[in-house]
Specification:
Radius of gyration: 20 Å
Number of strands: 0
Largest sheet: none
Helix content: over 70%
Number of helices: 9
Strand content: under 5%
Distance between the termini: 47 Å
Length: about 210
């Protein structure tokens, strides 16, 4: 009952921080898709860059989130504002699954379909946009789904640098040793991740088996 009472009395702040958290995730994911999708396509056309691009994205994934925020702090543009720094770090974390799945989805297209399209006189761009991307879209969505769930979780760390979001409740609760405050941040973040997983998984299945 105490936890429910705390949620009710702080609903306005929970709502505000949930919107902040959602904004961080949405902006980061949009940037990650706009960067990761072209990079994944590039790797299918220029395989020699595969080790460099995927290796760099993998290295970023191995860096602890707080450490990555610390590495970006000295940067003149990113480090000047907490929200920019958080979005940059979250975008970097989201890149690997998007690049990997874009590459895997396109290269996994049946070679016979690709040859048939070329036999019809399709250019490389037509082949990409009319054949490869539509067929690979389910696999690409799987990468976006994984990246989104990761980003929702990592975004809670953004509060440590003053970027807002639900992590503010979590860090405040840890400092106060108060489970109610921790849950006020953890539960909405978990529900957000589950909602993203559910929606994108349904969308992914629709495109995979269409």
């Amino acid at each position: 009952m105490n936890t429910l009472r705390f949620f009710w009395s702080n609903q306005a702040q929970i709502y505000e921080l949930t919107l902040e958290h959602l904004e961080l995730v949405a902006i980061s994911m949009l940037l990650a898709v706009f960067i990761g999708l072209p990079l994944g396509i590039l790797l299918t056309r220029r395989p020699r860059f595969r080790k460099v691009v995927l290796g760099g994205a993998t290295v970023v994934q191995t860096i602890p989130s707080l450490a990555l925020f610390g590495f970006l702090l000295p940067a003149p543009w990113f480090g000047g504002r907490a929200d920019r720094l958080a979005v940059t770090a979250l975008t970097l974390y989201a890149l690997l699954p998007i690049i990997q799945n874009t590459y895997a989805g396109i290269t996994g297209v049946d070679p016979g379909i690709r040859e048939a399209a070329r036999g019809m006189g399709m250019t490389d761009l037509q082949l990409l946009f009319q054949v490869e991307l539509p067929l690979a879209f389910g696999v690409i969505l799987a990468g976006i789904r994984v990246a989104t769930v990761i980003t929702v979780g990592v975004a809670t760390i953004a509060a440590a640098i003053g970027a807002g979001g639900l992590g503010e409740f979590i860090f405040r609760g840890l400092a106060m040793v108060d489970n109610r405050v921790i849950l006020a941040g953890a539960l909405p973040a978990a529900l957000m991740a589950l909602a993203a997983e559910f929606f994108l998984a349904r969308l992914e299945r629709r495109f995979r088996y269409a």
